[in-house]
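User: Sequence in, structure out. Go.
Assistant: Echoing your sequence, followed by the structure tokens.
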Amino acid sequence: MLLTENVEITGSSCTEDALTWFETSMAAAKTHGERLFSELLDEHRSKLKDERERAEYAYESRYQAIGRIGLPAVREHRRKRLKAEYQARLAALDEAEASVPDLNAVVMVRVGLTMSSGRAA
């Protein structure tokens, strides 16, 4: 409705009212969203754990395969390159693990009747 209808924007003359509305809304969002937030965080961590295990398995497999093929100098070069790729992958996973969502209000809208016209604001 905010995108399709005419909306009357009115400012609050009392900043204390706006602050109270914000605090009440934030408390409600935290209370009602806590379970969902926890589930999403657990799922995120589980996926990262699985990804770490896959990366470690792939590293070990490729490391062993490199040891069976080529001259010693070539094998050493490939192992160094593989280790650099593995370290970069672990760093990306560490960065993803450090990123945790946060709750921030982007916009707050109060919907109600206007006093002058009796229409929804």
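User: And one key feature?
Assistant: The mean pLDDT is 83.
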